[in-house]
Design a protein that fits this description.
The protein is mostly helical. The protein contains 19 helices and no strands.
Length: about 450
């Protein structure tokens, strides 16, 4: 089930590794839509609003968890590429220790301060208690999120992109069933929806963990592997924390734009919500490209295959450009019927607004593809703090544009994310070549005449 990304055609490897990831992202988005529909259809609009009111803080905290675990897996990919399985096991063990510590600390903090967080977010009084019941259950289940994201990250680092997807699909199906059972049969309201999500995440984590323990002899641990080493833990934190913060920073920027759109009125909020749901599906391939390049970069840096870094990047950028062009054409022709999947007949008058939002974003899908491809590549190469700076620039761009929304209206809101992607690319492209030069410096003993980072 492992895949060595240091040998063979980069394009072929990227496709074979990334396609399973794509199915996982698509299925997760499909599940999110179905999950939301179950809550709305069975419990009503107030319950849907209670869950929706926690969306930004949910994304911020769970995103931090996913990003941190992904960062912990980068040294694993590098050691796998280098063929040093002893060091690989020690990094896996070190990441596991840190996941336990971070999971316990984050769970305790978010549960304890949950009401304060909801109050600070100006959660409406009529849905406050339901929002609390939902999000405090998610916060209490954060260890399950750490388990899945870390186990899946380790598997992907070793080239197994299928197992995490298989268990994600299984967990999503179980989640939908549990939603129906807990809500309709046990009358557990929004707590049932959150509890179903946590249990399903735990199932996926245990499935990936079982695969790690039984399917990979190179992960058979000794007592020596589990020894706490400060230097190693520091390296893992240097990789993991910036990636976690990157997700949280992105969430903050999104919250700013959402607040600006909210100020325009319900009509605009509804149009943006519908178009955003379409965009989430359409952009799944960009997410898959990013995750693929993180593993590709990590393995090839570990194997000191410097020339393959450029080859892989060029192949994935070409793939991103082709898909971006295809998306733009598809959105031009199909924007209205796709938006109507999330709008009822009474909201058909909002189609021009939803179309404007979706097409404006589609025009800038190629810069979005570069953000995902290059940022995750840099992370895989071991330069997570640089990737985090790109996230800060994205947040700054969204914050700046959000200030223009009251002046220029809805059009400014449409350009918020495109502005963030372009600004991030202006930093990421030269940052990638700087990382290449750092890796091939003679002082590091990693010279290679075949790689020209100036090209």
């Amino acid at each position: 089930m492992t895949k060595d990304l240091t040998k063979g055609s980069p394009m072929g490897l990227i496709l074979s590794f990334g396609i399973p990831l794509l199915f996982g992202y698509l299925f997760q988005q499909l599940y999110n839509v179905v999950d939301t529909a179950i809550v709305g259809k069975t419990l009503g609009g107030a319950a849907l609003a209670a869950v929706g009111a926690t969306g930004s803080i949910n994304f911020l905290v769970v995103g931090f968890c996913a990003g941190t675990c992904g960062g912990f897996a980068i040294p694993v990919a590098q050691q796998f590429g280098a063929g040093d399985y002893r060091e690989l096991r020690r990094y896996v063990a070190g990441g596991a220790w840190l996941c336990v510590l971070f999971g316990a600390a984050l769970t305790a903090a978010t549960v304890f301060f949950c009401r304060d967080i909801l109050t600070a977010m100006n959660t409406p009084a009529d849905i406050y208690q339901r929002s609390y019941q939902y999000i405090v259950t998610i916060f209490a289940g954060l260890p399950a999120y750490f388990l899945y994201n870390y186990a899946a990250g380790v598997l992907r680092a070793m080239g197994d992109s299928r197992t995490p997807v298989i268990w994600l699909i299984a967990a999503s199906l179980v989640n939908i069933v549990l939603d129906v059972v807990f809500i309709l049969s046990f009358h557990m309201d929004v707590f049932g929806a959150a509890f179903a999500t946590v249990l399903s995440q735990l199932l996926a984590g245990l499935g990936c963990l079982a695969r790690m323990c039984r399917g990979f002899p190179i992960l058979k641990m000794s007592r020596e592997d589990w020894r706490w080493e400060g230097r190693r833990m520091g390296e893992l934190c240097l990789m993991g924390l910036p990636m976690g913060l990157q997700y949280s920073i992105t969430a903050i920027g999104s919250v700013m734009i959402q607040a600006a759109v909210n100020g325009l009125g319900t009509v605009y909020v509804t149009a943006v919500t519908a178009a955003s749901k379409v965009a989430m599906f359409v952009c799944c391939p960009f997410d898959a490209m990013g995750s693929t390049m993180a593993t590709y970069g990590g393995q090839n840096v570990g194997a000191a295959q410097w020339e393959r870094l450029h080859r892989g990047l060029r192949a994935c950028v070409a793939l991103g450009a082709a898909y971006s062009a295809l998306c733009l054409g598809a959105m031009y022709l199909l924007a209205d019927p796709l938006n109507m999947l999330f709008l009822d007949a009474e909201s058909a008058s909002l189609l021009p607004l939803a179309r404007q939002y979706l097409l404006t974003g589609s025009l800038f899908f190629f810069p979005l593809s570069l953000v995902n491809i290059i940022r995750f590549m840099i992370q895989g190469m071991g330069f997570s703090p640089l990737a985090t700076l790109a996230g800060v620039l994205e947040m700054a761009a969204r914050a700046g544009v959000s200030c223009l929304v009251p002046v220029f209206g809805f059009t400014a809101a449409c350009f918020a994310s495109p502005a963030a992607w372009v600004l991030a690319d202006l930093f990421l492209v030269p940052a990638y070549f700087w990382c290449c030069r750092r890796l091939t410096r003679p002082a590091r003993g990693l010279t290679s005449p075949s790689l020209s980072c100036q090209s």
